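User: Continuing from earlier, I have the next pair ready.

Assistant: Great, send them over.

User: Here they are, in order.

Assistant: Folding the first of the pair now:
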Amino acid sequence: MHPPELPAGCHFHHIGYATESVEREATLFSSLGCRAEGDTFSDPTQGIRGLFMAGAGPRIELLENLPGASTLTPFLERGTRMYHLAYTVPDLAAAMAWAGTQRARVAVPPVAAVAFGGRCIAFIVFRHGLMLEFIEQEHGA
C-alpha cells in the first residue's frame, strides 16, 4: 500500500541547505553551475539569512543563522546540510491537514516569510525525520 500523495497543485520549489556561511557555500554552488536568484535576505522572525541559487539541478536555498540565533544549529551540529524539501501549495491549511493524516508533526506553524514576500510558510516533520516546508502560493499562480 502506497501512502497518499501530496494534495493536488503542490509543486517542488527548493532544497533547504544549512550552512555557517552563505557566501562560502555560494562559491561552491557557483562552481557547480548555479547562479544567485536575487539578493540575500534576512528573516529575523525565523532567525536566518539566505540566498536562493539555481542552475542545472534543483533550486537550493542556502541558509545561515543570524547573529545570536540558533535556528540551524541542530542541523549543523549533526552535520546535516540538506535538511528540508520545499513545495508551493495552493492551500496551506489543506497541506497541513494532509501532513496530519501522515502523522507528521508541525515543527514551525504558519508564519509570514521574508523570502516569499510575506506569504506564509510552515514546516512539518515526518516520523522518520524528513522535513518539508510548505510555501503558500501567490494568488493567481
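And the other member of the pair:
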Amino acid sequence: MKYNIGYDIGSSSIKAALVEKESGKVIAIVQEPQDEMGMDSQRPGWAEQDPEDWWRHICAATRRLIENNNINPTQVGSVGIAYQMHGLVLVDNSGSPIRKSIIWCDSRAVAIGQNAYEQLGIARCKTHLLNSPGNFTASKLKWVLDHEPDSYQKAYKFMLPGDYIAYRLTGKMTTTVSGLSEGILWDFKENQTAEWLLEHFGIHQDKVPELVGTFALQGTVSTDAARATGLAEGTAISYRAGDQPNNALSLNVFEPGEIAATGGTSGVVYAVTDSLSVQESERVNNFAHVNHTAQTPRIGKLLCINGAGILYRWMHNNLAVSSYDEMNTLADQFDVGSEGLCVIPFGNGAERMLKNQNPGVHIQYLDLNKHQKAHLCRASLEGIAFAFVYGMDLLKADGVSLEVMRVGNDNLFRSPIFSETIATLTGCKIEVYRTTGAVGAARASAIYEFLLTRLDSDCIANDLVMDYTPKSEKATYEEAYRKWKKTLEQQLKPNTK
C-alpha cells in the first residue's frame, strides 16, 4: 500500500494527515501540539511565532503518523504542504531564521501598505497586483527594512511559512506564484515578480526565492530531514499552497462559479473566477489560485470576516448553556428574524470588507419583556450569516458568479439556521463535506504524480455529508436582512468621512 502525507501549518497547531495514495481514503489525522501553539505579541496589533516551533511540531506529527499506523517510511510516496498565509520568515545564508515570523494577523504594516497603494497609484495596483499592497508579506518586509535594518541586511531570502517548511524538508529555498501573489508580490499583467513594487519598497530582488510550480517536484526529503521526521530520504514534496486556496482545493473548488467557505473564529468566502478585472480591491483580496496560469487565469477572490464564529463562542462562554448543540436547539425555537432582535457581529478588529472600519458588536432592539437567551442564539447565528451575505454581495459586484458553495463539516455551517439563511438570501446551494486542510494537502500531492487537473470527484463525493438548497419562500429572510443591513449602515455612518 502506498500513502501520501499532508500538512496544515496553522497559527494554533500543526495538523498532519495520512491518506491512501490511490483512493484518497483518510487513514489518520494527528495534531501537534495537543493544546495550542503560543503567539508573541510584544505590542498591540503584533503577532509573531518561531518558525522552529512549526518544524518541531511537523517532525513530531510525522513520526506519530508513521509509528501509530505501523507503516514503512518508504510507503509514503509524496508530501503536500498547506500553511497560514501572508506570514514573513527571514533566513540567513545558512537557512537559519533571523527573527521570529511576523504572521498573518500582525497588523503593524497597515500604514505601509496603504501609503504604497496611494503612491504607486490605485489603478496600477488594481491592474497589476489585483490588490492593494495592504498588510501583507511585502509590506511586512518593508517594515523590517525600516525598523530592523540589521535583520534585513542579514536576510539571505524571505519566505512564506510553507516555503520555510518546504526548505526544512528539502534544503531548497523556493516559493510559488500562488505564494508570491498572497504576499502581493506577483504582477499578473506581466506574469512575473512585481519588481517595481520591490523597487518602491527598496527590497533587493535577489531576496526572492526560486520559483517552483504549485503542483511540481519541489524537492525531495534530505538526509537531515529524514532523520528528524522519520520520512524516507528522497520522498517527493509535490504540492504547496496557502490555507485558503488549499481549503478550496480540499473541497474540489477549481473553476469559475465554485466557492469554498469556512465559518470558524473568522469567516472566509473564497470564490474562483477567470477574470483579472477587480472592482473591490480594497475590500476583497485576489490571489492566484492553485491552478492559475497566465494562459488560463484562475483567481481566488478572498473575502474575510473577522467577526464570525468568535461571536458565537463569546455567547457560548457567557450564556448559561452547556454546548453549541444546545445553543442551536434554543435558536430553533424562534422563526426568522428572532422576533425583532438584531445582532451586528463585528467585534474582532477592523473589517477589510467594511473598508477597515470596526463597528464592534451591537445587540439592537432588545425587548426586556420578550427576548431571552434563545433569541440571542438565533439573532447571533442570523447576524453572522447576514455578514456573509453582505460580503457575498461584494463578490457579486466584483464579477463572481455564485452557483455552489462547498464547506467543511466542522464549523458554523453545521447549523441549519446559519446555512439556510445564507443559501436562501444568495440563491447559492451549500454542500457540506467531511474533509480538512491536511487531508486536502495530502490528496493534492497526488495531482502531480497522477498528472491530474483536480481531485478525484468520486473521492470528494464520498465526503459529502449534507446540502442546503435555497428556500422558495424567502420574504421573511429578505425583510430580516434589510433590517440588519440598515442597522449596520447606521453604525458605520458616524465613521464615514
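Worth noting for the second one:
The first helix runs from residue 51 to 68. The chain is about 35% helix and 20% strand.
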